[in-house]
TrEMBL record:
GO-annotated molecular function: ATP binding
Gene3D superfamilies, per database record: P-loop containing nucleotide triphosphate hydrolases
Organism: Amycolatopsis magusensis
Residues annotated as domain ABC transporter: 10-256
A Pfam family: BCA_ABC_TP_C
Keywords: ATP-binding, Nucleotide-binding, Transport
UniProt name for this protein: Branched-chain amino acid transport system ATP-binding protein
Superkingdom of the organism of origin: Bacteria
Length: 269
């Protein structure tokens, strides 16, 4: 498969974002075909988060266009993502502190239900039925991610890796056509990253995934296609093997001050 496959779910065409005089993204073009994992990588300040925010509708590009399922998104907002079939996890976990794990995940499902127009009217028999269905669905996703035993817990009392899975469950419960993951590996142990890699590959049975990630090992293992940004420019793209072999990519990472500068994809101890 190549990125030029017909009918991508999401297509970005020459997206340019400027913050004052700074060009955070310069004519970046990329596509996300159905059933694929697309990675966005690049050194610090390359424009990854800005790209993620453009897709989410947090940042409006000055130039260029986005198409979702062939239709142009002119001024979508983050609130409209669920209705489009897009779910996201953010760098911060973004879990509701006062809600249990199950309630957090149900909040994700309710956002989806509202977006689909199944408004819940509390106190009716239908509402009780909807509530039960949402609970079932939320429990099912928690079970799939191996954290259902924590359903009644308050998230902050749980290990960070478990909280990350809860945040993932909250995104997945909406049954998105596309899942946006911002640094899903950050703060996880090597064993947890292994598990996450397997899980992301399994997601492609039902959803496309866009992953913005510093952790090179994860990106190289899970992505079908990788887009490399540097100073807002798309400097390389291709399969993990192509990106790994691209001298421009190595050059961009040289001097990068993080331990993620190794683009060989070799696992670090
Ligand atoms: N709201 C903003 N206002 C001004 N400049 C911004 C804003 N957001 C990002 N930038 C700048 O745009 C450039 C790209 O930033 P961005 O956060 O997208 O990079 P990144 O690749 O996600 O970096 P990192 O890996 O460090 O998170 C940087 O120079 C950053 O300082």
């Amino acid at each position: 498969m190549t990125i030029a496959s017909p009918s991508p779910l999401l297509a970005l065409d020459r997206i340019t974002v400027r913050f004052g005089g700074l060009v955070a993204l310069n004519e970046v073009t990329m596509a996300v075909p159905p059933g694929t994992v697309v990675g966005v990588i690049g050194p610090n300040g390359a424009g990854k988060t800005t790209l993620f925010n453009v897709i989410c509708g947090f940042v409006r590009p000055q130039e260029g266009s986005l198409h979702w399922r062939g239709e142009q998104l002119r001024s979508h907002s983050p609130r409209e993502l669920a209705g489009l079939g897009i779910a996201r996890t953010l760098q911060g976990l973004g879990l509701f502190a006062g809600l249990s794990v199950l309630e957090n995940v149900m909040a994700g499902a309710q956002r989806h239900a509202r977006a689909k127009g199944f408004a819940t009217i509390f106190g009716t028999r239908k509402a009780a039925h909807d509530e039960a269905a949402l609970t079932d669905r939320a429990m099912h996703v928690l079970r799939e991610l191996g954290v259902d035993q924590h359903a009644k817990a308050i998230p902050r009392m749980l290990p960070y890796g478990v909280q990350k899975r809860v945040a993932l469950a909250r995104a997945l419960v909406a049954e998105p056509a596309m899942l946006l993951l911002d640094e899903p590996a950050s703060g996880l142990s090597a064993a947890e990253i292994d598990e996450l890699a397997g899980r992301i590959r399994r997601f492609t049975e039902t959803t496309s995934v866009v992953v913005v990630e510093h952790h090179m090992d994860l990106v190289m293992r899970v992505c079908d296609h990788i887009v490399v940004l540097n100073f807002g420019e798309l400097i390389a793209e291709g399969t993990p093997a192509e990106v790994r072999a691209d001298p421009l990519v190595t050059e961009a990472y040289l001097g990068a001050d993080t331990d993620t500068a190794d683009v060989s994809g070799a696992r670090r101890a």
